[in-house]
Amino acid sequence: VLTGADLSGADLQGAKVRGADLRMAKLVGSNLSEADLSEAKMVRAKLRRANLAGAILARADLSGADLEGADLSGANLSGAEISRANMRYATLEGVVLEGVRRTDMGF
Fold first, then answer.
1. Whether the predicted pLDDT of 59 surpasses 80
2. Which residues are registered as beta bridge partners of 56?
3. How many CB atoms lie within 10 A of CB 50?
4. What is the DSSP string of the chain?
5. Which of 63, 67, 74, 98 is most exposed by smallest CB count within 10 Å?
6. Is it the case that residue 104 has pLDDT exceeding 80?
């Protein structure tokens, strides 16, 4: 269980952490590019300036997550929950958003 863990600046490129419990975890500036975060619980996680390029976030719960300035280029968010997520200044080029559930998002 990684609930509330501080993984800021960690290099987790390509990590296979499907279904991980990362609620309220700090991943500020972390490299999660190409990581498999499918079905991960990332409620209120702090992901400012994180590199999530090409990451798989299908069916992940990112409710209330702080993704300000994060790079989500080419990420797969199919079926993800992103309600109340802060995505200001995030790079969203090529992001797959099919079936995403969202309300009250900040861009």
1. yes
2. 36, 76
3. 30
4. --TT-B-TT-B-TT-B-TT-B-TT-B-TT-B-TT-B-TT-B-TT-B-TT-B-TT-B-TT-B-TT-B-TT-B-TT-B-TT-B-TT-B-TT-B-TT-B-TT-B-SS-B-
5. 98
6. no
Q: Are 96 and 77 in contact (CB under 8 A)?
A: yes
- Reported as a single tens digit per residue, the pLDDT across 1-47 is 789 999 999 999 999 999 999 999 999 999 999 999 999 999 999 99
Find residue 71's DSSP bridge partners.
Answer: 51, 91
Q: Which residue has the tokens 């976030």?
A: 57
CA distance 45 to 56: 16
Sign of CA dihedral 54, 1, 103, 29: negative
- Residue 102: the pLDDT is 76
